[in-house]
Amino acid sequence: MSRLSIETPGRAQTVLEELSRDMGRRISASQPGLCPVDLCLNFLRLCHAQTCGKCVPCRVGLSQLANLIEGVLNRTMTETVIDRIEETAQAILDSADCAIGYEAARMVLNSVRGFREDFEEHLLRGRCICGLSHPVPCVTTCPAHVDVPGYVALIREQRYEDAVRLIRKDNPFPSACAYVCEHPCEGKCRRRMVDDAVNICGLKRFAVDNAGEVPAPAAAEPTGKTVAVIGGGPGGMTAAYYLTLMGHKVTIYEQRPKLGGMLRYGIPDYRLPQDILDRDIAHILSTGIEVHTGVSVGKDLSMEDLQAKYDAVYISIGAHADKKLGLEGEDATNVISAVKLLRGVGEGNVPDFTGKRVCVIGGGNVSMDATRTALRLGAESVTCVYRRRVDDMTALQEEIEEAMAEGVQILPLQAPARIEADEEGKVAALWTQPQIIGPYGRDGRPRPMPAKVRQFRIPCDYVIVAIGQAIVSWHFEAIGIGTSRGAIKADAQGKVPGFDNVFAGGDAVSGPATVIRAVAAGKVAAANIDAYLGYDHKIRTDVQVPPAHFTSTPACGRVNLRNREMASCKGDFSLVKEGMTPEEALQESSRCLRCDHFGYGVFKGGRSLEW
Amino acid sequence: MVNLTIDGVAVSVPEGTTILEAAASANIFIPHLCYLKDLNEIAACRVCCVDVEGERALVTACNSPVVEGMVVRTNSPRARKTRRINVEMILSQHDCKCATCARSGNCRLQALANDLNILNIHYPTMLVEGERAAWTNTFPLYHDHNKCIKCMRCIQICDKVQTVNIWDVMGTGGRTRVDVSNNRMIKESDCTLCGQCITHCPVSGLRERDDTQLVLEALADPEKITVVQVAPAVRTAWGEYFGLAREEATMERMAACLKRMGFDYIFDTNFSADLTIMEEAYEFLHRFQTGDLKRWPMFTSCCPGWVRFLKGQYPELTDQLSTAKSPQQMFGSVAKSWFAQKLGVDPKKICCVSIMPCLAKKAECALPTMRTEAGPDVDIVLTTRELVRMLRSDHVEPKLLEEIPVDDPLGVHTGAGVIFGATGGVMEAALRTAVFALTGSNPDPDAFADVRTGPGLREAEYEVNGVKVRCAVVSGLGNARTLIERLKAGKAHYDFVEVMACPGGCVGGGGQPIPLEDEELYGVRGQRLYTLDKEAPLRFSHENPQVKVLYDEYLTAPNSRLAEELLHTDHQGWQMPNQIG
Questions:
Q1: What SS3 string covers B471-486?
Q2: Is B315 a domain residue?
Q3: How far is B475 from chain A, CA to nearest CA, in Å?
Q4: How, if at all, do strands B350-356 and B225-230 pair?
Q5: Helix-strand-coil split of chain B, %, nearest 5
Q6: Same domain (yes/no): B87, B218
Q7: Strand, helix or coil at A374?
């Protein structure tokens, strides 16, 4: 006998590893609306299968917990069972020997406390509060509920104009979204149960890049009603577009020289070239919208006048103001806000960072835009300083990776402490307090805490602050519109409480968010303003979606977009990402599982033809 | 045309044809269960799965369109095995006690399992028990969770055709079931009791509350005088089970059967249909001439499913209903007043039974507004299906019985009363009498025949004595909703509207026999009623001799005080459950 041997995983173990990976993906692809009690029970069973069997709380307790929950679902237990579940879970949590037991118990405890009313509904009335409201995961998770399977199927048939037409039924910014949407639609894509989410955003880009001119549909009979839209960003323009199609006369008031809002003044050209954005804007304006740029409400005209002059007003201003660090030295020269930097670049007002060392503070998408813009403006070095870990950054993974690839250095776990200025009052360095990552906070994220080390000096010439944006809303407050931390208060229908004909949405209400959420808010506002004006206009399209192919394709890798070859990005603001090739688009579109047809889709709600 | 082969047979069919239809055109009948053409093409049961060359998995024939060059095998080893396993899985969650099932003999699942020669189910039975299987025994509609196979047809018919949305898929995962939508109980819902979910259920997941025992008890009670009325639509369909041709399944043959079962008096709802026309036509003329119908029309009130719909969905329009009771209820009123007087008996001794193509009638007879101190005007309502079951259990063989005449006086009727059972019939009958009332002479009885056929919502305009009367006829509650929405939007104006809750009218009623093959029979059944009308010696309600006697002896005239008391009702006197706070 040899004393030791090299262990290789057995066949069963190897297969099991694969199954575990598959299950992980599958669970994360759960569609919204499933019964939480049933899922909790089955998660528990999975946990129990991991039990080694040594200890009572885990070996017996998890079984008994499962029995009790099953009794709730089958209505074979009395009312006290829910308390019994809670007590049992607590006992397991308090006495299990290892995490297999106590973490399973914690899961049950969180469930019974988090959605006790679901347990009760099952036990007392034998029914589920939940319910599938929409069967197509991508359509549900898209805030604007764009018909994703529809346009992906059209792309597969090479009907790009129709794809664009179909998207525009719910979103008049197909081009802008094709380039910069955060694509929440991909998050629960059912294809993840097979391999990976369909690259929906990439396919949309293929459609808009390959569709020719697609004229706007004819507007409804003029109603004689007028609507003012304050703010010509994606939300305001979406509302304006649909309201115009509904036959109302819309006027947009925009404070900047051009339309587009954050799409133009917040997102750098290398991600969204201005001519791409202009395509969407030209299409929207082709419906006949009146536009006044360079006009600021509260300065050039008053809210009261608008309210009196128009039948309805939609407030869709953006979050263009910056947030301050509140640190010593913040008033030094060359401390600038990311919003201002990006807006300046958008306006063609380009600072020169040649040879300069730049520090960017913050870990969100705006921070990534600022770092990459600084590199393009010639900075010698760009350092992103963030007080948590890279894993905790709120920027999209992809954005972080690209920034790093372009040469941005990320310094995590450094909390800005003060800004050091030279004798001329210019930035000389950023001092940071190194952090240690600590216990989880209420927000479910691990909290950073000051580490027991000395402050750290980062010599630099510029400090760019990207720690969030604010909304300037005082002139709305002045006429009595409610706000909360600057954000305008409006209900889920977009109505501003206390005002009959005033609606609001987008960043103005939610705080800084995404393009697609602004579009969704614009769509909601358009429908509700139309109803407020006494109409029931429907937005629809005559595009026919091709029938689904019979059976699904076997597992196949997802096509990701590539970055174009770039020796250096200095001075180069042109587009970074390359679109799919026709071959890739065909393959990627055929990966769509057509949830609009298969499964629940063919039964209920697979397609909303109008709204 | 698309060319393909199915089981080696070359088939050529128009584009868009499903594999199932393409196969049928070549006399290859692919087994299926949940599929209901145009309504339920959701491929849920997976029984119609077939092998298509080149496809990874089997393809459902019911909702997959044919493709050029496709090679389909309906009986490949894989298709055979899969079909069988799927049916066994359905059976494992189905209460297979066929011996005690109302649908045994015309159950699609039973037929399918028999056809597939399934003699053994290889899975343990999984039925729901206790509270999870519970359903009310008092509501006229019964849902059996353990018979239900979740084919979803009931949901679809209620959503798409009737637009009442009573049913929905509730819950998720293994506990998914069909139940009342929005977590309501059926008794607190706005179910119209049209019963279309029952007639489109392939199994016995849905049926009527069985009231046959109550009838047997009444027949067995020597103190009771049992009076039975039979609705016009029943005679078009009751013989289907017994293999009688429609011409053979006469009212007179049914009378013989009912007599054999022991009923004392066999009457005909046609009589009270004629009476309804007298009351309703005169009411209409009155409301029309007094300008009461300028904004909204007068709606017929003979269909209780429709009345429930209107009160549940558009309670604000309740007063537009004719105040005339339905023929069933008029019959009950007359039976327990005039007829009781004629017999010289206490009306409490009369047990009034009606045979109806309908479930809503079971609710109608129980309304608080449909009774006197002598009890309910109509005591027990049986559906056509319950009648068939009673005849079978009394081993009555209709074919072998001699026809006998229906009893006097409440059995006498005209052709106008007969056509009540088909869409357009009430309108036509009312117009025949309205013209007489206005002009003093009869029109051609077929003058209004164009309201009989056409789409589910039909319009017609007639000139009666120089005055234009705008009429509309609808059947199916989805069509009724469309009509009301058009009225509300000011896009349509009518004076008189006939509404029947069931597509095709009562002949397509929710209490009618259910064909094993998914055919809609209201067309042929309705045709039978129009034939009976054509053959009737009298075709005008006002010419019904016994109706005349009733007025002369008792009621004096249509809409008289006594007629109002006995033959009219206050539709505001009760509320739909969803209208009760």
A1: EEEEECHHHHHHHHHH
A2: yes
A3: 25
A4: parallel
A5: 40, 15, 45
A6: no
A7: helix
Segment A160-173, tens digit of pLDDT: 999 999 999 999 99
Contact B172 A130 (CB under 8 A): yes
Domain's final residue, options B75, B91, B107: B91
* Mean pLDDT across chain A: 94
**The pair of three-digit structure tokens given for residue A26, joined into one six-digit string:** 């599958």
Closest residue of chain A to B171, computed from CA coordinates: A128
Chain-chain contact of A35 with B172 (C-beta, under 8 angstroms): yes
Q: Are strands A226-230 and A249-254 parallel, antiparallel or unpaired?
A: parallel
Q: In angstroms, rounded to a whole number, what is the distance separating the alpha carbons of residues B64 and B41?
A: 9
Statement to judge: residues B84 and B217 lie in one domain = no
Q: Pick from A73, A132, A550: which is nearest to B52 by CB?
A: A550
* Residue B67 included in any domain: yes
Which one of A121, A126, A128 has the shortest CB-CB distance to B131?
A: A126
Mean pLDDT of A556-578: 91
* CA–CA gap between residue A451 and residue A140 (Å, rounded): 43
Using pLDDT thresholds of 50, 70 and 90, give the confidence band for residue A485. Answer: confident
Residue B11 phi/psi, 5-degree rounding, is -130, 140
- The arithmetic mean of pLDDT across residues A29-47, rounded, is 92
Rounded to a whole number of angstroms, the distance from the CA of B485 to the nearest CA of chain A is 13
Token pair for residue A584? Answer: 């890739």
| Inter-chain touch B183–A125, beta carbons under 8 Å | yes
Angle between helix axes B425-439 and B269-289 (nearest 10 degrees) is 60
Residue A134 pLDDT = 67
Shortest distance between the Cα of B471 and any Cα of chain A, in A, equals 28
Looking at the fold, whether B72 and B218 belong to one and the same domain comes out as no
Q: What is the mean pLDDT of residues A580-601?
A: 95
Residues of B with CB under 8 A from a CB of A: 41-44, 52, 55-57, 59, 63-65, 129-132, 152, 168-175, 179, 183
Note whether residue B203 is domain-resident: no
DSSP calls for B299-339: EP---HHHHHHHHHH-GGGGGGB-SBPPHHHHHHHHIIIII
Model pLDDT, residue A535? 94
Minimal CA–CA distance to B26: which of B15, B10, B39? Answer: B10
Digit-coded pLDDT (tens) for A383-418? 999 999 999 999 999 999 999 999 999 999 999 999
> Cβ contacts (< 8 Å) between B169 and chain A: which residues?
132, 604
**Domain carrying residue B484:** 213-573
**Do B486 and B350 fall into the same domain?**
yes
Burial A468-479 (b: 16+ CB within 10 A, else e): bbbbbbeebeee
Mean pLDDT of B406-413: 90
pLDDT level of residue A217 (50, 70, 90 thresholds): very high
Q: Which of B91, B110, B145 is the last residue of a domain?
A: B91
CATH classification at residue B462 = 3.40.50.1780
Q: How many CB atoms lie within 10 A of CB A423?
A: 6
**Are residue B70 and residue B219 in the same domain, yes or no?**
no
Q: Say how many domains are in chain B.
A: 2
pLDDT of B581 > 80? The answer is: no
Residues A435, A414: contact at Cβ < 8 Å? yes
Q: Do A127 and B179 touch (CB under 8 A)?
A: yes
In a domain, B133, yes or no: no
Decide which of A552 and B111 is more confident. Answer: B111
Reported ipTM: the value is 0.85
Do residues B270 and B406 both lie within one domain? yes
Task: Compare B230 and B516 and report the one with higher pLDDT.
Answer: B230
How many C-beta neighbours within 10 Å does residue B409 have?
18
A124, closest residue in chain B (CA to CA): B131
Please say if the pLDDT value at position A133 is more than 70: no
B402 with B551, same domain: the answer is yes
Q: Are residues B327 and B464 in the same domain?
A: yes
